[in-house]
Structure formats: C-alpha cells, structure tokens
Amino acid sequence: MKLHDVTVHPSDDALAREDQLAWKIAEVASERIDATDAVADMVINRIIDNAAVATASLGRAPVIAARAQATDHPYAPGGTVFGVDGRFGPEWAAWANGVAVRELDYHDTFLAAEYSHPGDNIPPILAVAQHAGRTGEELLRGIVTGYEIQIDLVKAISLHAHKIDHVAHLGPSAAAGIGTLLGLDTATIFQAIGQALHVTTATRQSRKGEISTWKAYAPAFAGKMAVEAVDRAMRGQTSPTPIYEGEDGVIAWLLDGPTAHYRVPLPERGEPRTAILDSFTKEHSAEYQAQAWIDLARKLGREHPELRDPDAIVRAVLHTSHHTHHVIGSGANDPQKYDPGASRETLDHSIPYIFTVALQDGEWHHERSYAPERAARPDTVALWRTVSTEEDPEWTRRYHSLDPAEKAFGGRVEIELRDGRRVVDEIAVADAHPLGARPFARAQYVHKFRTLADGVLAAAEVERFLDLAQRLPELDAAELAGLTVTADLSDVTAPKGLF
C-alpha cells in the first residue's frame, strides 16, 4: 500500500488532476487486477450474506416502499430487485436492493477512523452488471474495487467526527467499483467519483435521537447516486474539482478544515486488492459494536441466571470505547435509548437495551428481540434502566488500533448485585469475528442464508440461488441475471406515491 498525503489547496494552486485523491482512486479502479482466491471466496460469502439479510427484510415497510418505487420503473435490460420477477432501471434496482440489504442492520462491517458497511457496494455494482450484460468475473472485480476503496477511505478519513454520515465514503467507492466493472478509463471514473461524493454528503442526524426509516435508505441513496454519476460521466459530464482538496471542497468545509492533513492508503500499481479480508460480518441483527456485547450477555445469562432479575441488580456498567459509549450507549444522551416505545431503528442503536434482552433471553433474534411487546416487558424495562456505559481509554485505544490482533469492539462489564457481590467479565471481539470464538466461514454464511430464508423463499429457490452465488466467477451474463431471489409476496400491499 502507498500512503497518499491529502491536504486542502486554494484555487490559485491549480492542483493537477493527477495529484487529487479522486484521480488516485480512479487509477486504482481503472487498473485490471484479478482477485486472489481468498478474496474471490470472500466476495461470494458477502453476496450470500447480503441476500440473506435482504430476504429476511422483504416484508418490512421500508423495503416494501423502496421495492414499489423500483417496480414502477421497469426497464429492459435493467437490473433485478429482491423478491420479484422482472427487470428495472439499474439505479432503481440499486435503490430497492440497497434498502433491503441495509434494513435489518445485519450485514458486514468495517470500523476504523470511520464506520462502514462495505457490503452496501454490492447492490449498485450488481444492478449495473445485470443491466450491462456483464459476467460474474467482471462483477467480482467491481465488487473487489468497491470494498477496497471504501475500506481505504474509512481507514484514513473520519466523517462522524464532523457529524457527516458514513455513506459519504460509499458514493465514491460504488462509483469506482462500477467503473472497474465496466472497464472505464481513469478520466471517466475520476469524474464519476467527484459527482458521487458531491451529492452523498449528509449529516448524521439520521442516526441520532429517534432514528427513522431513512437509516436504511441512506446507503441505498448513495448507491443510486453512484449509478447516476457514472452514467453522466460516461456522457462526458464533469464534476466539481478538486472535490476533496478544494478550498470550498468537502475537507475544507465538512471535515477537518483548511489545515487538514490525511494520509490515505491505496494499493500500489499491480498490488492485489485485499481490503475485503479486513471486514467482518454480523451474527446478530444489531449495530456492529453490539455484537460482542450480545455474545457476552448470553454467556453471563447462562453462567449467572440471577442476573436476569432486575430486583437482584443495583447497576451494570459497560466500560467500552468512545464510539460505543457516545453513539449507541448512554453517552449519546438520547432518552430514546431507554424508551420501550422507541422504533426498531432506535433500539438497534441502544446497547443498554440490547445487552438487557440478550442477557435475559440468551439469544438475539432479528424480529423477536425487537418486538414492541418484548421491549415493553416490565422486568426488561426495570433491568434495562440499570445498564449504562462509560468510556474506557484502553478500549478506545484498542478500537482504533491498526493491529488486527489487538483491535477490539467490546469491553468490560461490571455488575453490582444487591447481595453485595460483583460480577466482572469482558470480551474483545464477537464470536463470529475472524479472531472470535466461532469465526464465520462459508458454512456459516450459507447457514445464515438458509435460516433467514426459511418461510420466505421456496426450498428450490434457496438452492438455486446458493448454486449460482457459489459459481460466481464462472457465470455468464444470462446466469448473472438470476443472481437474485423471488418470493411469494401476494399478501404484501405496497404504498402508493407519485409514480
């Protein structure tokens, strides 16, 4: 990897295109590099993972609405939409599938200077691949680029520190991935990246307080904008430049300001793109920083059943990283995180709630654990309100560590009981993490898909999809058009809007 220095330049500097970050990203995207076996294997895993969580969300209101919007835009050849037959405008297919993949907060993650769900790159790249009649091998290369660029940006540039939503890294990465898929030249990809970034910066209010259904739409919007940006760039249209380094650009006014200095890692010419191997998926349908805490809570509930009784507990304090404390913990100062009537989107960003339910139930389920009647159970509410978080500098340091063996997303819990006893335990990474107790491999991804598809897809459809997905590098254009799932949605009523 090569570290690229990125700073703000006044307009009279006339920063050369070749010295701009967007150009350097485009150079990575325009170079044809075959995936390593390990990377190709992981791309297949993540395609299966995305389809699993999208399938489980087919009947949820945001997904129904997004799918209805997409199916009002039929187009030949177009892309496919999870759940239904037919072909639709690729930007709308990217939109609907992006919402379906993101709705349950249940697919892959990468955390560093910024947060990300790099699997969000797959819907727009796949939609364009189907529309453009590309092969599985070409799709594979495009997805590898999408992951590489998003993860490299996430390693170097914090968005949340300035209350900018993390999808601002997704617009450029998806545009770069589509550029790789289509074999576009560096100049065209450069323009698409600039446009995609320009239109996908937004505040983090979508993840604050009472969290709305837009949380699932935010990455889908970035993917849709990436598709449209590539289309415009292919037609010769240009973007604001320098989009990152300009004196009125993203860095100067939305991020670290005129004196900013970032060092962004990107692959050297000829270097394999392996960033996807640094990312990790979720066993549980919740914010990634909750994954390890769910596993620890389940363990504590088995070992100490008395902890499930609110009358036995004085307080439970989760000592954890800055992010966990301030974003999904009590440090957010959001009363909604303790509200039994809060939305599902809010509850999956409340570690006090998640820890409580996992402790009491010994499980975490993508529907049962969020059910209104489950959240309102009196003994749960009482126990929930004894749980708080505190930032621990050591867990913050480990959260930001660049050493994979040291990087951690958990913490230490200290529980004070009314009988005077204390229970103390800790966990660094989730059980499903590559360094966890039960790392996910192909068998676990397939099991996740089968489990979430049970009762939603016909058995033959499950097997058909799994066969196609696992043959990804061999698929021709006709087969790639089948890389989706269809379900019986006859009992689903779609809302009507403008279209």
From TrEMBL:
<dbReference type="InterPro" id="IPR042183">
    <property type="entry name" value="MmgE/PrpD_sf_1"/>
</dbReference>
<dbReference type="Pfam" id="PF19305">
    <property type="entry name" value="MmgE_PrpD_C"/>
</dbReference>
<comment type="subunit">
    <text>Monomer.</text>
</comment>
<comment type="similarity">
    <text>Belongs to the PrpD family.</text>
</comment>
<dbReference type="GO" id="GO:0047547">
    <property type="term" value="F:2-methylcitrate dehydratase activity"/>
</dbReference>
<dbReference type="InterPro" id="IPR036148">
    <property type="entry name" value="MmgE/PrpD_sf"/>
</dbReference>
<feature type="domain" description="MmgE/PrpD N-terminal">
    <location>
        <begin position="20"/>
        <end position="261"/>
    </location>
</feature>
<dbReference type="InterPro" id="IPR005656">
    <property type="entry name" value="MmgE_PrpD"/>
</dbReference>
<feature type="domain" description="MmgE/PrpD C-terminal">
    <location>
        <begin position="284"/>
        <end position="472"/>
    </location>
</feature>
<dbReference type="InterPro" id="IPR045337">
    <property type="entry name" value="MmgE_PrpD_C"/>
</dbReference>
<dbReference type="InterPro" id="IPR045336">
    <property type="entry name" value="MmgE_PrpD_N"/>
</dbReference>
<dbReference type="InterPro" id="IPR042188">
    <property type="entry name" value="MmgE/PrpD_sf_2"/>
</dbReference>
<dbReference type="Pfam" id="PF03972">
    <property type="entry name" value="MmgE_PrpD_N"/>
</dbReference>
<feature type="region of interest" description="Disordered">
    <location>
        <begin position="324"/>
        <end position="343"/>
    </location>
</feature>
<keyword id="KW-0456">Lyase</keyword>
<protein>
    <recommendedName>
        <fullName>2-methylcitrate dehydratase</fullName>
        <ecNumber>4.2.1.79</ecNumber>
    </recommendedName>
</protein>
